[in-house]
Design goal:
The protein is mainly beta. It contains 2 helices and 14 strands; from the N terminus they run E-E-E-E-E-E-E-E-H-E-E-E-E-E-E-H. The strands form 2 sheets. It has a 6-stranded antiparallel beta barrel. The chain has a 6-stranded antiparallel β-sheet with strand order 3-4-5-8-7-6, with no helix packed on it. A hairpin with a 3-residue loop joins strand 13 and strand 14. The protein is globular.
């Protein structure tokens, strides 16, 4: 099946279950954003890419390498071609036609650890080379550190399952950023050594939209979780969310030494 016609299937096991943030794509081509986020209007977050045909977000972390979520790339392999876009909105977007050399998926599929990481190596192109590279954080993220959720996903969720699908909040290609306080203490049963959580459950839905608490939404998967420092560095990768308002991220900061090293090794 061609990448252009590939349909990302979004599955909800039961009400209240963790759900991946891959875009529920029905062919409309909507490119919308983090629920409750603010528009990104500068290049403060380097290397972020809208992985258009993959229906996810990613970040350039090496000369030919894109960090994203493992669940974004089933069936993608050497020779697969896809379109991506750089830039933080439609006026700054540059189209990239990329071909995959290799996909490295983290081998640990233990659901308790939820190591949702992949690195895509692509053939070099002038357009990709020109994109700034984002750095992984060389220090450990601490509980309650300020971080920024980044993504090109939807801005509102019509429902969690029940056949309702997900609603697009806009049709622009606008990157969104959402501030949160990182939780590294195993919130909601998460494995603290491999995951970071952001808890938005205290924010009323009415402050965002009629049906959605802030956090990840389909299309945000694979996007970087950045530090709030200048320059911003990547501490995690957008993975999935829970209807209660908790978003989950796979750690790549130096505090998760094994995962940090795995990503670095995938860049060689």
């Amino acid at each position: 099946m061609s990448l252009a016609s590939r349909l990302t299937v979004f599955t909800v096991v039961a009400a209240g279950a963790w759900s991946c943030a891959s875009r529920d794509f029905n062919g409309e081509g909507a490119e919308t954003n983090v629920v409750g986020g603010a528009d990104v209007t500068s290049n403060a977050y380097p290397g972020v890419l809208n992985l258009v045909d993959i229906k996810c977000t990613g970040a350039k972390v090496g000369p030919r390498h894109i960090l994203t979520a493992r669940h974004c790339v089933p069936g993608f392999s050497a020779g697969s071609k896809f379109t991506a876009q750089s830039g933080y909105n439609s006026s700054t977007a540059a189209v990239l036609n990329l071909e995959i050399v290799k996909v490295s998926r983290h081998p640990d599929q233990d659901s308790a650890k939820n190591i949702d990481l992949a690195v895509i190596e692509v053939k070099a192109t002038a357009g990709f080379t020109a994109i700034p590279t984002a750095a992984l954080s060389a220090t450990a993220v601490r509980d309650r550190d300020a971080v920024k959720v980044i993504g090109f996903g939807c801005t509102a969720r019509a429902s969690f399952g029940g056949g309702g699908g997900f609603a697009s909040g806009a049709t622009s290609q606008q990157l969104k950023a959402l501030a949160c306080s990182a939780r590294t203490g195993g919130v909601n049963g998460l494995n603290a050594s491999t995951n970071i959580a952001c808890d938005f459950s205290h924010i009323a839905k009415s402050a965002v939209s009629a049906d959605s608490v802030p956090g990840l939404c389909p299309g945000d998967s694979g996007g970087p979780l950045f530090t709030a420092t200048n320059p911003a560095q990547i501490v995690g990768v957008n993975s999935n969310y829970h209807p209660s308002g908790i978003s989950k991220f796979a750690r790549v900061d130096a505090g998760a030494s094994g995962l940090h090293t795995w990503v670095k090794d995938a860049l060689r």
